[in-house]
Amino acid sequence: MNKTVSAIIPAYNEEDSIEATIKTVKSIDKVKEVIVIDDGSEDKTYQKAIKVAHKVIKLDVNQGKGSALNYGLKEAKGDILLLLDGDLAESAAEAEKLIEPLLADRADMSIAQFPPSQIKGGFGLVKALANWGLKKMTYQEFSAPLSGQRALSKDVIKKIDSFAEGFGVEVALTIDVCKAGFKVEEVPVNMNHRETKRDIKGFLHRGKQFKDVLRVILLKMRR
């Protein structure tokens, strides 16, 4: 079967990199559709995306990554979903490596494993929490539990139906996919994107991320 790929790119204030990201993703052979969700950006993300993407959905207010992905999910037509951040720029070419395990039927979901960070960010609390929750819920360990760069098969898409809201979307997705018995493969990639630093903005972001991940884990444990 000649499977096609739909790329979904949620973006918030990514005017500096969104155009390069879209053009690079469009150059990947199997990608036939690139859908961008402008999640209430206050810059020129929409104006730049509309020039090159196949479809751009503009949200009036910022709703968060999970909600933005759900808008794209409703529009995607491909057999495989490729979930990517808007700030990957030319390194988005590495997304082709995420598609390969699904085309070869080795995996139902692939997760990008980035190179080690070159800057000091947080203290690893969010990652540690995600790893703890995933091991407790799925009995598996992951090197990149928070990675948002993923490829999903059509069977996974049908099963999950929708994405969790907020920054807990990746952890919730991994729990649901593993508990449903699907195969997951982590794929080393040479991607790079903007990283949060050890400043007020970075700590606020990671605090919200920690809260969202914790909420997802507690919710899944109750079920």
Report the top-level CATH class. Answer: Alpha Beta
What is the count of β-strands? 7
Evaluate the radius of gyration. Answer: 16 Å
Q: Gap between N and C termini, in Å?
A: 36 Å
CATH fourth-tier homologous superfamily: Spore Coat Polysaccharide Biosynthesis Protein SpsA, Chain A
User: Oligomeric state of the chains?
Assistant: single chain
The ordered H/E elements are: EHEHEHEHEHEHHEH
Question: CATH topology, which one?
Answer: Spore Coat Polysaccharide Biosynthesis Protein SpsA, Chain A
Overall average residue pLDDT: 92
Structural class: alpha/beta
Low-confidence stretches: none
Strand content: 15-25%
CATH architecture classification name: Alpha-Beta Complex
Largest sheet: 7 strands, mixed
Strands side by side in the biggest sheet: 3-2-1-4-6-5-7
Organism: Orenia marismortui
InterPro entries: Glyco_trans_2-like (IPR001173), Glycosyltransferase_2 (IPR050256), Nucleotide-diphossugar_trans (IPR029044)
Domain Glycosyltransferase 2-like: 6-123
Keywords: Transferase
Nutshell version of this structure?
This protein has 223 residues and is of the alpha/beta class.
How would you describe what is shown here?
- The protein has 223 residues and is an alpha/beta fold.
- It has one domain (5-222): Spore Coat Polysaccharide Biosynthesis Protein SpsA, Chain A (Alpha-Beta Complex), CATH 3.90.550.10.
- It has 8 helices and 7 strands, in the order βαβαβαβαβαβααβα.
- The chain has a 7-stranded mixed beta sheet with strand order 3-2-1-4-6-5-7, with helices on both faces.
- The radius of gyration is 16 Å and the shape is globular.
- It starts with a strand and ends with a helix.
